[in-house]
Write a structure and sequence with these properties.
Elements lengths: L1 H7 E6 L4 H4 L13 E7 L3 H12 L4 E4 L15 E2 L7 H8 L1 H24 L11 E4 L3 H18 L3 E4 L16 E4 L3 E2 L2 H14 L3 E3 L4 E6 L5 E5 L2 E10 L10 H4 L3 E10 L4 H7 L5 E3 L7 E4 L6 E4 L9 H15 L8 E11 L6 E5 L2 E5 L5 H17 L26 H22 L1
Parallel strand pairs: 1-17, 2-3, 2-12, 3-9, 5-14, 12-19
Antiparallel strand pairs: 4-8, 5-7, 6-7, 10-11, 11-12, 13-16, 13-17, 14-15, 15-16, 18-19
Helix pairs in contact: 3-7, 3-11, 4-5, 5-11
This protein binds flavin-adenine dinucleotide.
The site of flavin-adenine dinucleotide (FAD) has 44 residues, from helix 3, strand 13, strand 17 and helix 11.
């Protein structure tokens, strides 16, 4: 087995997020916490910084409390796909929660996409943003039919150009016959997550907000007259409002949310340097691609080119990133057998925040504001709902969202430790394999 391992990963394999090479963890000065301020924001990812930026530009005193270094969580570990949707495809979401709320949420996810793209442009954030488009290959012919309805709906309801691609033309999009056609959408892009976070951090600091790294918040107490005391490892701070922006890293200090947020481990792999021809043999158009399986394969061209970036084998916490790289490699090669000699130079993991209804949530509990649960679609949704949180605390009429007032669900069997995930991942992997096999037999 050793021989297989050493073939799959390069000798200089690294399990540190590759984005940290370009944007190393920022060493901010350890300034003392003030006795009091207007708002404490807990968490310094896209949600927390977007909220802090909106608040500071709205004239509020803001202190961001981060347990590790700024952006330590998913915001500097993700794949950088800038989508326009929620995790749920529109047609199944309409069937599940009804047409009107599903369409309102879908409309808002598109607004979130436009918000991020406009923000990057307006603020001139150099994060290698590329409007490359998205391809969504269907793993069964039935799913392709559903994607076709999705394409019609998106064009009719939102005026978005979405085109169903039949299996006979799929090689225009991806270099494999593994799937059964798919959906092509132009309104989708990709960026360098570390550079986007660094730009957001710079704008937040310039707006007057203070970011305290290595300052975990351990307790939030409600005081009289609508004030709060946030206890941190570096002392307490009294504030008029608290925002929790901890998503997949929500811990024991916020027990109500920890019982509702499911941390799902996900990884990203980066190939060794590859020729343009080899990259084009996988994705001739260079679009971000995510297939429709429960446990999908997703891939894109590495920002700046020259390598393939991909993800697969989601859900199980990785003890050993070389092993994770090997699992992802197997999932990639199952779809692209001609790439079986491609080696992996980087593989790392991070935690996505999932919810039981697989929808993002924004709300207020015990006087504490929160936004989280993006279920893997956080580049646009975290930036958007973080901004909305800021508007909420400012009391702006623009704060309303289609996600307001939806109950953040819990389950009696869940206390913050996702013991059921291994069984869930095995079950969904089984369903994916079964559906693929049935589809293959029927075509
Ligand atoms: C591997 C991976 C790939 C992904 N790919 C994509 C993608 O391509 N496109 C997309 O749209 N989304 C993607 N996502 C999801 C996206 O990255 C997240 O939804 C988004 O970054 C969440 O931002 P956030 O600010 O809410 O949380 P995070 O960025 O996770 O930040 C939470 C922060 O809270 C801090 N924290 C926790 N507890 C405390 C405490 N008690 N006190 C102080 N600080 C605390 C943590 O240290 C952490 O820094 C991916 C996620 C992962 C893990």
């Amino acid at each position: 087995m050793l021989g297989v391992m050493s073939d799959v990963v390069t000798p200089d394999f690294s399990d540190t997020p590759v984005w940290w090479n370009d944007t190393p963890p920022r060493a901010l000065p350890l300034t003392p916490l003030p006795a009091s301020t207007d708002v404490a924001v807990i968490g310094s990812g896209y949600t927390g910084l977007s909220a802090a930026l909106t608040l500071a530009r709205g004239g509020r005193g803001v202190h961001v409390l981060e347990a590790e270094h700024p952006g330590y969580g998913a915001s500097t570990r993700n794949s950088g796909y800038v989508g326009f949707q929620l995790r749920n495809k529109l047609v199944p979401l309409m069937e599940r929660i009804g047409a009107a709320p599903a369409l309102a949420m879908a409309r808002e996810a598109i607004a979130a996409h436009r918000h991020v793209v406009a923000f990057i442009e307006r603020e001139q954030i150099a994060c290698k943003f590329n409007y490359c488009g998205r391809y969504i290959p269907a793993h069964t012919p039935e799913v392709l039919e559903s994607l076709k309805r999705e394409a019609e709906l998106m064009t009719r309801e939102f005026g978005i150009a979405a085109e169903a691609v039949p299996k006979s033309r799929e090689r225009e999009e991806i270099g494999t016959d593994f799937f059964h056609g798919g959906l092509r959408v132009e309104m989708s892009g990709a960026l360098h997550p570390g550079l986007y976070h660094a730009g957001l951090l710079d704008r937040t600091l310039a707006s007057g907000a203070v970011v305290h790294a290595h300052t975990p918040a351990t307790e939030i107490e409600r005081l009289r007259e609508g004030r709060f005391r946030v206890t941190t490892a570096r002392g307490p701070i009294e504030v008029g409002a608290v925002i929790l922006a901890t998503n997949g890293y929500t811990g024991k200090g916020a027990p109500w949310l920890a019982r509702r947020m499911i941390p799902v481990n996900a990884g990203v792999s980066i190939s060794e340097p590859l020729s343009d021809e080899r990259i084009a043999s996988v994705m001739p158009k260079g679009r971000t691609t995510i297939d429709t399986r429960h446990n999908p394969l997703s891939f894109r061209v590495y920002p700046g080119g020259g390598r393939i970036q991909f993800s697969a084998a989601r859900g199980l916490f990785a003890r050993d990133h070389r092993q994770k790289a090997r699992e992802m490699h197997a999932a990639f090669v199952a779809v692209f057998p001609h790439m079986n000699d491609m080696r992996i130079a980087h593989c790392w993991t991070g935690q996505m925040g999932f919810t039981f209804d697989e929808l993002p949530h924004i709300g207020l509990h015990d006087g504490v504001h929160y936004a989280m649960g993006y279920c893997g679609s956080g580049v646009h949704m975290a930036s958007w709902l973080g901004h909305k949180l800021g508007l909420r605390v400012l009391g702006s009429p623009d704060a309303a969202t289609a996600f307001d007032g939806r109950e953040l669900q819990s389950r009696w069997y869940y206390r913050g430790r996702p013991w059921f995930l291994p069984a869930y991942v095995h079950w969904t992997n089984f369903k994916d394999k079964r559906d693929l096999a049935r589809a293959r037999r029927s075509t």
